[in-house]
Amino acid sequence: MISLPSPEYFFDTWYVMPHLKLLPTNALTFDQLYTHYLEVGFIYPAKLERLADHLDLIRENWTRGYAGALELLWTIAYHDERFDKMGSVTCFRTTNHGWQSQHLTSQNHAAGLFSLLLAAHGEGVFINCAAMQNWYSPTNAFAMKIYDRIPRVLGPRDSTCRLLNYFWVNPLRFSPLSRQFRVVRCRDNERSLVRMMARRLRGDVYCRAEELESDDIELDSLDRVYRRYGLRRRRFIWVAVDRVSGEPLGMIVAHRGPLGLSFSFLENRCDLLVDPDLAFEQKKEISSLLIARAAQAYFDSRALPAYPLADLVVIAPEDIQQVLLDIGGVKTRQYYQGIWLNAGFEKWKKYMTRVFSPVIQRFERQSRANEPVGI
User: Fold this and answer.
1) Could you write out the three-class secondary structure of 101-163?
2) Is pTM beyond 0.85 here?
3) Residue 312: pLDDT above 70?
């Protein structure tokens, strides 16, 4: 079991019962947190194999990110002293005003989990987070039970939840040339085109949460924040256009960040968006072109740290799953991407309180009676 900070380092204001407390933000080192992940089985064998060759770099990136704390990367953990259980949740900054919540563990401890979620909500409000997102597997029964309800609870104006496919793709097999389509890199001057494509193919909430309608679509301002802690965070966007009609038909959003901030490497993912009404061969050619061009952000960027992986992480919806399989992509998992905007934060907190209230009441009764706690 990992060695936890002594009791005087705990917040006294965050607890459900005296023996259930939250550690201060970033109280755990990366190695302590990683050990916890291994102990609770959060890191499954395939993920462990992916991380192993890059663990020193990932540790360094987390250590630098933790130095940025509420500006870049923060972890909150609970500890139940009575039952020696621990859980944690981590958030890292993905846009100028948006964050990704991830790596949630609980050790089957609903009261501790509720404390984590409330604390993370409080931190999000404190730092004036404009949008929060998380990624969870459809095989995770708990995540499905809680987060799959986001759109119903918050409504379509302030939230979205979409099933996406996670691929590893080798971009070097594709040619960036085409007679039918051309690919245009989009900077701030082309943000109206990017906004239009994002809204049409992924919806308004995605567009707003990813700040694709802002005047800083490549995240230069965020990169300056990351640089203060010895890290980098950029974004590059390309749109595929029909050479004859000039109509935009596909877009790829290439995220570049410190490797391993997400243990699924989502900090370096490519979001692939292609018009669903196109013929299969057109989708195939556009996808190949966009992935080939996106490779520049990973393998040809002299301004950013080296990308040590051979393949790109490509995230794509169901309608182009077969396309990516045909061009040699390897599908490894499916994830739901849940997004909720600031306007829905308070409603989400009230919903979570209502859901967990019966469990917390039972936990308190059993704790007072000094009985084994069944959760």
Assistant:
1) EEEEECCCCHHHHHHHHHHHHHHHHHCCCCEEEEEECCCCHHHHHHHCCHHHHHCCCCEEEEE
2) yes
3) yes
